[in-house]
């Protein structure tokens, strides 16, 4: 119970600070509000009654929900960020369809690639047995 409570309080505190970042553009304004937020958390630090702790935590969650920013800041590469999944990494099988002249430019890479593919197929056959191409899904 104690570790779950500590985790919930830390999560609420971090989400509160992130919410403040969305509301205050200037660093000095954000830092002032963050200090006030920390003081509010510190005022309730020594409470021992579990029911009172749960009530304060629920009240804090509700206040955070009520004060959330309509367009919260997001990290660029995080879900919802402007660069999330922007760089599409092609799957490995794409190079199987390269033209032989393209493959000839990287002979060591493709020699090792064919060796690794043969090792993988041997491992697969050893683990699962040889499959037939008769059964298609």
What would you say about this model in short?
By secondary structure, the chain is mostly helical. The chain contains 5 helices and no strands.
What would you say this structure looks like, in words?
The chain is mainly alpha-helical and 137 residues long. Helix content is 60%, strand content 0%. It contains five helices and no strands. The protein has helices spanning 2-23, 27-43, 50-66, 100-103, 107-128. Helix 1 runs antiparallel to helix 2 and helix 1 (2-23) packs parallel to helix 3. The longest helix is centred in the N-terminal third of the chain and has 22 residues, at 2-23. The radius of gyration is 28 Å and the shape is elongated.
**Beta-strand content:** under 5%
Give the CA-based shape.
elongated
Q: Gap between N and C termini, in Å?
A: 49 Å
Global structural class:
mainly alpha
Number of helices: 5
The counted number of beta strands is: 0
Rg for CA atoms: 28 Å
Give the topology string: H per helix, E per strand: HHHHH
Main sheet summary: none
Question: What keyword list fits this structure?
Answer:
single chain, 137 residues, mainly alpha, 60% helix, elongated
What order do the helices and strands come in, and which of them pair?
Elements: H1 2-23, H2 27-43, H3 50-66, H4 100-103, H5 107-128
